[in-house]
Amino acid sequence: MHKKIMYYCVMNKSSLYKGLLEPIILKLLKDEQRMYGYQITQAVKTLTAGELNITEGALYPLLHRLEANGLLTVEIENIGNRMRKYYSLTKTGKKETNFAIEALKNFAQTLQLITNPTLASND
Amino acid sequence: MINKTQIETIQLFCKNEISPYYDVQIEVTDHLVNDMEMAMQENPDTDFSILFEQRKKHWKAEWKEIIAAQSKSLLKNYTTKLNHAFIEYFTLPKIALTLLLVALVVYIDKSFKTESFIKASIHLPNIINAFFLYKKANIIYYNRRDKRFKLLTYNVIYWLNLVIFLPAILFYFTLSMLLIDGSISIHPSIYQTALYLFPLAIITLLAWKKVYINAHIDLRAKYQQAFA
Questions:
Q1: Which of B145, B153, B130, B149 is CA-nearest to residue B218?
Q2: From A70, which residue of chain B is nearest by alpha-carbon distance?
Q3: Cβ distance B5 to B23 under 8 Å?
Q4: Which of A49, B32, B158, B183 is the most buried (most CB within 10 A)?
Q5: Residue B6 half-sphere exposure, CB side, CA atoms within 13 Å?
Q6: Interface pTM (ipTM) of the complex?
Q7: What is the pLDDT of residues B171-188, one digit of tens each?
Q8: Residue A85: helix, strand or coil by DSSP?
């Protein structure tokens, strides 16, 4: 029994958050206009109150994929002592972000119904 | 705060042990510098060299996979663009060229000896070079000439260019050489196939030419510091 409980605790939150990473990043870029990679990792950590710590192994492949799909554009800027790559949303990216946020809201509502079934029966 | 010497140490590490490509180094260096700054803020008494040595192993393992994933993303990006450019030749207005090429091939098949056409296709490399004899296409020459650092993006499009161009040119060139030589007999169905594949080859090469030139223009605009 103890092992079963430990299993469910170890079925960690990051696997639950995995599918949400893309809409979270798109939302951040919509709010901040442009961000660089490390800034995004810190912003996600702040936004999720420390619940989600993205590694570079999760973040950068996603950013590169979004750029390849035309949702993000890149600007390289000299920040004094080195170059920095900033990501921002393209026009297509902004449209896609609106859909992603809508889908996220619907998902949150569905989760509410699952975790609070009494709400569904009252409706 | 990390000083200039420490940043140069990180840059050298990125260049020598993470990736030789400038477009990858920019992102990695910036991330590692930020990572070190954060780590040094959390542990103010720790020496930069000790912290740097501790983190190196982790960085090497993480970034190897990230760079492999980046190459795949780039490849997917350009092949998707090639598909879109190719499909344009089946929609208005470019479908007119496609239909013209097909009509030309049918006309040649009915009116002339197919072998003569295949012999003439020895000039296909010259025709392809002619596609690049205009101002916008000069960017390819300038990028090759002015490139100061290795670029992953440049590498990907360079190899994709070879993979797309070489098979068609080699196929028609070899076939025409064999025909001109005459010592090896080739079944007529092979000439027929080569003739009817010709419009497909030309459309693919034209579609790729557009993607390739635009890729070079974007590369130059994005990574200006990588070019003289």
A1: B153
A2: B77
A3: no
A4: B32
A5: 18
A6: 0.81
A7: 888 888 887 877 777 787
A8: strand
